[in-house]
Specification:
The complex is a heterodimer. By secondary structure, chain A is mainly beta. Chain A has no helices and 12 strands. Chain B contains no helices and 11 strands. In chain B, strand 5 (43-50) and strand 6 (53-56) form a beta hairpin. Classes of the chains: A mainly beta, B mainly beta. Chain A binds chain B through residues 4, 31-33, 35, 37, 43-45, 47, 50, 52-53, 91, 93, 95-98, 101-109, and chain B through 31, 33, 35, 41-45, 48, 55-56, 58-59, 89, 91, 93, 95, 99-106, 108-109, 111.
Amino acid sequence: AQKITQTQPGMFVQEKEAVTLDCTYDTSDQSYGLFWYKQPSSGEMIFLIYQGSYDEQNATEGRYSLNFQKARKSANLVISASQLGDSAMYFCAMREGEAGGFKTIFGAGTRLFVKA
Amino acid sequence: NAGVMQNPRHLVRRRGQEARLRCSPMKGHSHVYWYRQLPEEGLKFMVYLQKENIIDESGMPKERFSAEFPKEGPSILRIQQVVRGDSAAYFCASSPPDRGVGAQYFGPGTRLLVL
């Protein structure tokens, strides 16, 4: 079974508008972390935002926010006021605790295109 | 505070040669993870190491691949007798020794091309 599912292979958004990238996860661990990474065409993995499984508030980092719905096991990324530089591949990831070996598991990614 | 460093950034090898990829974790981090990314795919876990110990190598191919993290020096991912299918981006990540579920910090990756 997929542990991280990103159902949108590609997304288009108009510059200055908001966009939501979907992510659902599957784990039986009580303690886990959820992350979003951005991978531009240059190839590096840029850490964007983190949500801990025990955090009650949704994480926010500047224009990024993580819509964490624990019961539904979803961790969608919301990017507000999109910019052309946001065009990139976005990966949702999860890090489980002891049972998962503390390694990070990645989804297949969503390619975001921001239109001028 | 320097980030995770990887070298070389790009590596070209002919089939049958050996590839050595190096990773220096962030200062104070004693846990290193290696991931492989095939074109248009997400990263896949390969191996988790602490100093002088392999903790989890469940993602490593059984043959030709090995990893180490010596007491001194960088972590090394070694691929012997490379084949075209080994062409990929190899990322190293590090995390502090608290064994928590916080963020791993990734290096810039090594792009391996096998001719």
